[in-house]
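Subject: Xylulose kinase

B.,
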Amino acid sequence: MSAAEGPLVVGVDTSTQSTKALVVDAATGEVVASGQAPHTVSSGAGRESDPRQWWDALCEALHQCGDAAREAAAVSVGGQQHGLVTLDARGAPVRPALLWNDVRSAPQARRLVEELGGPKAWAERTGSVPGPSFTITKWAWLAEHEPEAVRATAAVRLPHDYLTERLTGLGTTDRGDVSGTGWWASGTETYDEEILGHVGLDPALLPRVVQPGEVVGTVRHSGDLPFSKGTLVAPGTGDNAAAALGLGLRPGTPVLSLGTSGTVYTVSTRRPADPTGTVAGFADARGDWLPLACTLNCTLAVDRVATLLDIDREAVEPGTGVTLLPYLDGERTPNLPHASGLLHGLRHDTTRGQLLQAAYDGAVHSLLGALDLVLDADADRSAPLLLIGGGARGTAWQQTVRRLSGRPVQVPEAKELVALGAAAQAAGVLTGEDPAAVARRWDTARGPVLEAVERDEAALARIAGVLSDAAPLLEREPEDPH
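Prediction pasted inline below.
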């Protein structure tokens, strides 16, 4: 047995590229064991993964945790948002899951917005204007391109729903993750049957939306898992809502997350409804809201530029004349699904380090452009930005965010915040506590604060000017090669 002060809980982060599991002491927040296993994602026009590999990765990550996982009293799964998982009558995947960063459904997204009242109506109804990342647009794409897959589908799930269901045998989701589908009405917190009817999706195929703090079931007997039979299963949630729990966020505290995608978000007591579509009006996992803006291109895009230049990702050099918009996968904020990377201002004396710094600037500019829209009008604009995600510990990322935001930056020492948030959610179902309060008790946001520096207004104006002037190029749809 472990020497933990309290019961042990497991928090899971099933992300785009891997599944991680943490075994955490519910009393202290100490991580007593961890495990991780990778996923594969298709390349080319789409971004797809076989959901069964998420389960295999979860089993492998839990086995790496050893005996500590067997002692756990509760488990919760945080997962990548928006992914469309289609299951047949036996619970097996009909086809690989369409992931959040698969933007082939851009035409369907535009059509759905037009057909059901326009952006303002969507924002008021669902909290968000659906873009090609949203699950509903992926379902519409599937219905148009693979109608046989739609006919074979007996259940529709999100990635975290899929793993939770394999743990419990029950089809459930939570308000945080379902708020990113496009078929959940944020005002009434119910499935929107008119929207579902419009895209031909039977509500009976969808999971039950459980309440925050509800025990959704227990781990059913499975030889694949090291859990004890009867281990409680918490609702789980989307990755950003889980990270908000993991930080113990209070309303108004801004977060900038640097991962495969980049996100800016905060907790708000006001239900968001941004008619421009820049801010997604997600729910959080507790009962409040999580207004969020997301970019497709963040650490992965900048690392790709460093690789192309054959230099280390930290080998940046200051420069004033070159602008790089690193939209290597299209872009979501700004909404440019067909865009590619764009370089402007190249000269004979431009260095590789300056090109790399320009890639950082372009990525951070996209995120900061949405920050004011994410925050409520009465939010403290001088409060530190919480910098999290894989890039948060990179000096070049930290300095770029400081220089372009003009705000102090705090870098929490805690790692794996999505898994920690899921663990706090699991602890909450054991103790009845608010999981955000659990995380604050664990002091997960503790970390150094980097002082504010003067905001680089010249760089911001230059990037904005290039973005505006290049709009016709960035908005152009690719030509059909046939």
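The CA atoms of residues 258 and 464 lie 21 Å apart.

T.
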